[in-house]
Design brief:
CATH superfamily of one domain: Aspartate/ornithine carbamoyltransferase
CATH topology of one domain: Rossmann fold
Strand content: 5-15%
Helix content: 25-40%
Length: 328
């Protein structure tokens, strides 16, 4: 695949209050849930990327945008990069039904953020709560991470459409959201997984339908070196996700050939970047040389989780009306 990233030029920036993608997204998304990237249109994904970059550029303009709004973060899975209310000792639905939790919590706050093992918990909460529900992480998708990742690519390359994006490793929740987000933004996404560990066919089908509309491709391979050819970005994740530690012994030899190392990175373009959602298992799915090397943008990704999710909250909670620019 030939990348268009080197020949396309970004159009002059449009201010937030005049950007048609952002204005339309602010109207449509207010009060809605985000359970999956597939809940969003391509224009809405573009809006989130653009707004995330703007919030990062000028955070003071948005400092009062969500005054008096309250959020609860309910996490069954631990997280280094998020401050949260610990649900690890009492999983949702165990002591009290998810529906009852939703109906209680909606009385006290404006938005619910969930990081849970079961995607069904996300959808059940969304079905019962009258406030927006955000999927911070489930066993099926990781939409907030993917939004930050493609914001980082947009920041680095000056655009995403036409990029050749390669994911190497387990066809897991991170892989699912990356396929969907890449398709929404017009990136060519190649996924290389071991036999038996490919992404869910339902997600692949949805991603390919979106990609067809946006003039890009979703390609599945089992050869990581073939997948890395001509890549603008190479992304990997742990091969043993949280909650699957019992499969470590089985998985490690299967995924060893899929390690991102210098040899694999040399298959990509000289300008290619390395990405990982973190935490990384050093010298397992990625070597120290790559993770700490000049092509690595993993900590840009980690920072941009903050800015991308600010943008998401602004749109779901109607916060753009309270920005400095809007008041002028």
């Amino acid at each position: 695949m030939a990348s268009k990233a080197t020949v396309e030029r970004r159009e002059p920036a449009v201010s937030v209050e005049k950007d048609p993608d952002i204005l339309a997204a602010a109207t449509r998304m207010a009060g809605e849930d985000l359970c999956s990237i597939a809940d969003l249109s391509s224009a809405e994904v573009r809006a989130l990327v653009k707004l995330g970059r703007e919030v990062k550029r000028d955070p003071r303009a948005y400092r009062h945008a969500l005054d008096a709004k309250q959020m609860i973060l309910m996490f069954e899975k631990a997280s280094l990069r998020t401050r949260f209310g610990d649900q690890t000792g009492s999983p949702l639905g165990e002591r009290e039904s998810v529906a009852d939790v939703a109906r209680n919590v909606e009385r006290w706050i404006d938005v619910i953020v969930l990081r849970t093992y079961a995607h069904d918990t996300i959808t059940e909460m969304a079905a019962n709560a009258r406030v927006p529900v955000i999927n911070a992480l489930s066993d099926f998708e990781h939409p907030c991470q993917a939004l930050a990742d493609f914001m980082t690519l947009d920041e680095h390359f000056g655009g995403v459409a036409g990029l050749n994006f390669t994911y190497v490793g387990d066809g897991n929740n991170v892989c699912h959201s990356l396929m969907l987000t890449g398709a929404q933004l017009g990136a060519n996404v190649t996924v290389a997984t071991p036999r038996g560990y490919s992404p869910d066919i339902e997600i692949v089908t949805i991603a390919r339908e979106i990609a067809e509309k946006n003039g890009c491709e979703i390609i599945l391979l089992q050869d990581p070196h073939a997948a890395a050819e001509n890549a603008d970005a190479i992304y990997t994740d742990v091969c043993v996700s949280m909650g699957m530690e019992h499969e470590s012994t089985k998985r490690e030899p299967i995924f060893r050939p899929f390690q991102v190392n210098d040899a694999l990175m040399q298959k990509a373009k000289p300008s290619a970047v390395f990405m990982h959602c973190l935490p990384a298992r050093r010298n397992a799915e990625v070597t120290d040389e790559v993770l700490d090397g000049p092509q690595s943008i993993v900590f840009d990704q980690a920072e941009n989780r903050l800015h991308a999710e600010k943008a998401l909250l602004l749109l779901l909670l109607g916060g753009l009306a309270n920005t400095v620019d809007s008041a002028q």
